[in-house]
Amino acid sequence: MGKITILGRWLWFAGPLTIFSCGPYSFNPGGGGAKSIAIPLFENQTTQFGVREALTDSVSFRFLRDNTLKIAPAGTADLLLSGTIVRYERLPHTFDANQQVKQYVVNIWAKASVTNQKEKKSVWEAEELLGFGIYDALSETEEEGKSRAVAKLAEDIVNRTVRGW
Questions:
Q1: Mean pLDDT, rounded, of the chain
Q2: Structural domain tally of the chain?
Q3: Residue 20 has pLDDT above 90, yes or no
Q4: How many Cβ atoms are within 10 Å of 119's Cβ, its own excluded?
């Protein structure tokens, strides 16, 4: 009988907490009822050709797939994403027993921010976001590593925007 009383007390206390603790959480990105985002072409301060287009396309694709925010022109969008690719590098990542490179890693750094255009306030900003992609030195190309780095960076940007983390 004592176990039922303890269980009953626990359910009486924890049950409402569990139900009501989910109430205030919002999936509303950017606050203020934001429903759309503008994604202009990223700036590129590196000498790496095509990376800004690849990142802009990847971010746009992920926003379309996520479907939390609609993509709109800068003049009408609730939110504005701004970004600059600031650094690109390819480095040896792992070596075999003969000290030959087995894998390379492509690192892409960007700074980015999202601004609520209606409220004229920053939703988030980051000075140094890193996307990385590892590729096999013998069977893959640097382009594949770059694609993985771009995908990681785009995923992080979208998550920061729609999840508010």
A1: 87
A2: 1
A3: no
A4: 14
Chain-centre distance for alpha carbon 29: 13
Domain range holding 109?
A: 2-163
Closest CA to 49 of 135, 146, 151: 146
Exposure of 66 by Cβ count < 10 A (0-12 exposed, 13-18 middle, 19+ buried)? middle
CATH number of the domain at 53, please. 3.30.160.150
Residue 108: closest CA among 125, 72, 83: 83
Structure-block tokens of residue 46:
């590196």
State pLDDT tens for residues 6-18: 545 544 544 444 4
Pair of tokens at residue 38: 């503008």
- Assess whether pLDDT exceeds 50 at residue 23: no
